[in-house]
UniProtKB/TrEMBL annotation:
Coiled coil: none annotated. Keywords: Cell membrane, Disulfide bond, G-protein coupled receptor, Glycoprotein, Membrane, Olfaction, Receptor, Sensory transduction, Transducer, Transmembrane, Transmembrane helix. This is Olfactory receptor. Gene3D superfamilies: Rhodopsin 7-helix transmembrane proteins. It comes from Enhydra lutris kenyoni (northern sea otter). SUPFAM superfamilies: Family A G protein-coupled receptor-like. It holds the Pfam family 7tm_4.
Length: 327
């Protein structure tokens, strides 16, 4: 904090989201590190399994691979800093670093939310208009929707972050959270805090709008599935939607707990738990849901892992033969 005359300018923020874990921070560091490692490896496995298996080159799996790729960066914006704070005495972040963390975390989260909405529409077309599906969901349109989700997710938050960067921070610098988020940071600004309510309303409208689109899509999807005469046909139709529905409930369930509470205040421990569920646990379960609930995905992952094992064993054999020949 830099002091000039009678005012002080904050140059960095102090995280206080883990106060209850100060004595046993290593006990939280180890599981958090394992979870982060699993998230990265799990989502990379899903991403490459889809890209390398030609049987999965269709809109649904292409959207899943893009979502998995975004998940890696989504968690990377916050978890490494959480891990650093757990083992360091100085739990701080610069204002620039805080703004960048907020921007990338929420931009990637927005991109994922838009992509989940796109995936719901894709499932709607596939089940409700199966004959027209190949002509509607073309590879070109799928690529445009994937890229458009990312571009819009990053552009929509840019004005908000630019506006926050112009606010004066001259008082307390303690963020009561485990990562930089809009409300905790805005509470520290030396300006009228009524803007926080406006921020809450904007975020709530965006969340509710996306949830409504997905919910209406699935109401229509379930109505159509229930009309399928054969039990096998109904089960197959439900199985194609189960993974996406599970991820949707995890993602928007945690988002709603985090951002649809307005002026309601929770105890610090509950705030920390909700933040961990939103930023860590939901991404942790996503690759599990996509791999365990889908036979094609499991087969592709097994194929990917086995091909790497065979390649590794083959390289060891060739190295061994080369050594023998040279001897």
């Amino acid at each position: 904090m830099v002091t000039t005359n009678r005012t002080s300018t904050v140059t960095e923020f102090l995280f206080s989201g883990f106060p209850q874990f100060e004595d046993g921070s290593l006990l939280l560091f180890i599981p958090l590190f394992i979870i982060y490692t699993f998230i990265v490896i799990g989502n990379l496995t899903v991403f490459f399994a889809v890209r390398m298996d030609t049987r999965l080159h269709n809109p649904m799996y292409n959207f899943i691979s893009v979502f998995s790729f975004l998940e890696i960066w989504y968690t990377t914006t916050t978890i490494p800093k959480m891990l650093s704070n757990l083992i360091s005495e100085k739990k701080t972040i610069s204002i620039t670093g805080c703004l960048l963390q907020m921007y990338f975390f929420h931009s990637l989260g927005n991109s994922e939310g838009i992509l989940l909405t796109t995936m719901a529409i894709d499932r709607y077309v596939a089940i409700c208009n199966p004959l027209r599906y190949p002509t509607i969901m073309t590879p070109r349109l799928c690529a445009q929707l994937s890229v458009g989700s990312c571009i819009f997710g990053f552009l929509v938050l840019l004005p908000e972050i630019v506006w926050i960067s112009t606010l004066p921070f001259c008082g307390p610098n303690q963020i009561h959270q485990i990562f930089c988020d809009f409300e905790p940071v805005l509470h520290l600004a030396c300006t009228d805090t009524s803007v926080i309510l406006i921020e809450d309303v904007i975020h709530a409208v965006a969340i509710i709008f996306a949830v409504l689109i997905i919910a209406l899509s699935y109401i229509r999807i379930i109505t159509v599935i229930l009309k399928i005469p054969s039990v096998e046909g109904r089960q197959k139709a439900f199985s194609t939607c189960a993974s996406h529905l599970g991820v949707f409930l995890m993602f928007y369930g945690s988002v709603s707990l985090m951002y649809l509470r307005f002026n309601a205040t929770f105890p610090p421990i509950l705030d920390t738990v909700i933040a961990l569920m939103f930023a860590v646990l939901a991404p942790f379960f996503n690759p599990i849901i996509y791999s365990l609930r889908n036979k094609d995905m499991k087969a592709a992952i097994k194929k990917l892992l086995c091909s790497h094992c065979i390649h590794y064993i083959w390289s060891l054999d060739t190295d061994y033969i080369s050594i023998k020949l040279f001897k």
